[in-house]
Input
Amino acid sequence: MIALNSRTGDVLAMGHEAWQMIGRTPGYIVAVRPLRGGAITDFDITQRMIRLLLQRVGVNRFNRPRVVICVPSAITEVERRAVTEAARRAGAADAQLIEQPMAAAIGAGLPINEPVGNMVIDIGGGTSETALISLGGTVALQAVRVGSFDIDAAIQTYVRREYGIAVGERTAEEIKVAIGSAYPTLDEFKAEVRGRDLMSGLPKTVILSPEETREAIDEQVAAVVDSVIACLGQAPPELAQDLIVRGMYLVGGGGMLRGFDLRISEETEIPVHLVDAPLECVVLGAGRVIENYDRLKSMFMGANR
Output
């Protein structure tokens, strides 16, 4: 997320600070997501965002770094070129891409170079990917362009349809974090939702229950679960039996949705473990790849092709 002054083109904020500005800014300040569905939607802004990130870590014209970027495995050849080009223009000497599930497995400390099945379910903002990894390579892969942003949008749509109230992107995410769940849990409570009444235009408050949010997001949750089942269907029998013993690993911010691990486990009859740092797992994996650049460079996209 990046916030811009559309009159001057200046970048005002990035990340969490920009997210807090959504729906609260004057018309000339816009908060945009330069990446949607795991692909670049605005090349120039993506380039500026990468440049800002590089500046934060002390990169200038004289020390151009090697950069590793995690991308969805569903990315097309054109999208892949766009990402590397944006990084190079932003000041990187070399940009290599690594698939998010692979980076997540490295970040979670899974034994990816051993001949055992490691199943990673990565639920990100715009994409959800399930990968079966063994001996340093991907054996089976299933990706859908459904993620946390789609879950937020589904909550917005539901509240608008059922209660006639317009709520913003931020409010929808807050509802998801507060009472959202993919499976019934014990400590459930209702939440107050404030928005604008579409009929009168006045502010209005309604009470939303966890059952309603589950109903609102069921289509998106089911799409992710179906992709996990499809990936399991591609697994060789020897690796499939590893999964019954070792279970599957849930990573990504979307994986933190309450009860998601229980829902997947219920439908696949395989244990699901939420990793220790689901939100940071992918980037920690990328960091390890950079630290062991020469040893792990075979993991990069296009390295074996």
Notes: Residues 142 and 152 are 22 Å apart (CA to CA). The two ends are 33 Å apart (CA to CA). The chain has a mean pLDDT of 89.
